[in-house]
Amino acid sequence: LMAYILSSFNTSDKTIDVFKTLICAGVNVQNLVVHSLKDLPTALPPGFTIGAVLKRENPHDAVVLHPKNTGKSLDTLPDKSVIGTSSLRRAAQLKKRFPHLEFKDIRGNLNTRLKKLDEKDDFSAIILAAAGLRRMGWESRVSQILGPEDCMYAVGQGAIAIEVRAKDKDILEMVSVLHDPNTVLRCIAERAFLRRLEGGCSVPVAVHTEVKGSQLYLTGAVYSLDGSDSLKETMQTSIASDNKVEERVDEWVQRVGVTANNMPGPAQDASEKLGLDLANLLLSKGAKEILTVARELNDAR
């Protein structure tokens, strides 16, 4: 596990020291699981929790062009150019933003998708997570980073989570120092937003979060599959606190699957409430209807 962490991510000395301590102490590394946070459900199975959320990489999506299109962007690609993506979220937003392009499913891991792009003429470009390309050492393949005006990202995208058993308090204590406070608060807000909407990979839900001073900003949106119907709103909350951490109790507090007892509880509560409030605002404007239709159409495909 430590070798995987060190070889794959831009880790700090603190991260290295924690994993050395865990292994030297004889901790069974099968008690820890490393995930991309965006792949973890907002409600974990009973008995499990996210014990650490590491500092987030660039959460945005990236355009990888076919070699014949070097120097172009999505704006300048010819009409009817085919863009590969397996994400309903990406396709819905990009169909609306770039109506001159066509979008087609592409499946497989990063290696497989890049091979399909390079060795055939089926796609003019594909869309991938910038963080995944960076972690694989393939940043040179990135032709364009898509900002929030083009394509907002998935909940938790770019963040790494360490899942542990909730009852393993000693391990929770050790891994908790890996929490990046800003990433934790942003992701709690995002996960609360998604959970309230009852969303997932089968419907197009997108977010963008930012911390400015003591304010946390959350933008959230839902889309129809073709991007023609959408709702998008932004809200903010104060995450200022007196730096008091959670009182130690037998059952530590989880917020949308995240346990961060070494961080101020009020800031976490405010972040979770922000996500719930924004979701409720969109639901009051018809988000449930948009997502229900999107889910039904996707299931029928």
From TrEMBL:
Enzyme kind, highest EC tier: transferase
Keywords tagged on the record: Porphyrin biosynthesis, Transferase
GO cellular component: cytoplasm
Keyword Transferase on entry: yes
Named cofactor requirement(s): dipyrromethane
Annotated EC: 2.5.1.61
Transmembrane segments: none
Pathway: Porphyrin-containing compound metabolism; protoporphyrin-IX biosynthesis; coproporphyrinogen-III from 5-aminolevulinate: step 2/4
Pfam families: Porphobil_deam, Porphobil_deamC
Ranges where the Porphobilinogen deaminase C-terminal domain occurs: 185-239
Claim: Iron-sulfur is one of the keywords in the record: no
Entry's Gene Ontology BP terms: protoporphyrinogen IX biosynthetic process
GO terms, molecular function: hydroxymethylbilane synthase activity
InterPro entries xrefs: HemC, Porphobilin_deaminase_cofac_BS, Porphobilin_deaminase_N, Porphobilinogen_deaminase_C, Porphobilinogen_deaminase_C_sf
Porphobilinogen deaminase N-terminal domain ranges (all copies): 31-172
Family, as annotated: Belongs to the HMBS family.
Name of protein: hydroxymethylbilane synthase
Organism from which the protein derives: Oncorhynchus tshawytscha
